[in-house]
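EI: anyone free to look at a 211-residue chain?
SC: sure, send it
EI:
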Amino acid sequence: MGTAPARDPAESCGAIVSSAAHQVPSHAHRRASVSDVRAGGALAWALGTGARTALGAVFLVAVAYKLTSIAVDRDAVHRGVGAFAALIAGHGVFPPDWSPALAWMVLFAECMVGAWLLLHFVPRAAAATAGVLLVAFSAYLITVRVRNGEPTCACFGSLSTGTLASPPARNAALVMLAAVAVLAPTRAGVQRARRDSNPQPSVPKTDALSS
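SC: here you go
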C-alpha cells in the first residue's frame, strides 16, 4: 500500500489564510444584519412600551376626573361617583337602580386596567384587555347617541364638556394604540430574537497536516 504524500505546511497555511479572507465579507454582512435586527426590535419594543404607558395614563386620568366631577340636576348636586352614576341614569340605557353599581364597575375596571398597563406585566394581555374595554365603551356611547341624540359625555368627568360626537373617534384612536401595544414585541421576545440572530462564529474547517 502506498502512503499519502506529505503536504507542504506552507501550502496548508495559505489555504487557511485564503479561506479566512473569503469569509470576511460574509461575516461583515452578518454583523450588519444582526445590527439591523437589534435596532428594529428595540424600536418596536419602545413603541409598544410607549403605547401601553400612554393608554395606562389615559385610563387613570379618566378615573381621577370622574372622582372629582360634579353633576347638577333639578333635585340635587352630585359629586364624584354619584355624579357619574347620575349621568349613567340620565342616559336611560340601563335601569336607574343599576347606575351606582355600573359607575363603580367602570371606575374599578379603568383603574385596574390603567395600573396593569403601567406595570407592563403580561403586556400584550393588558393591551388587549384595554382594547376590549374601549370597544365596549364606544358601543355604549353610540347606543346613547342613537337613543338620546347628543347627550353630554363624562368620560373625563368635568373635562368632558363636548357632545358624544368626539368620544367614539377618540376611543377609535385609543383602540389603534392598543393594537400597536398588542402587536409590538415584548422585552423577552426582543432578547430571544437577539440570541437567535447572533449565532456563535464558526471556525473554518481545514485538512489536518499530514506527515
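EI: The chain has one domain: 27-195.
SC: 👍
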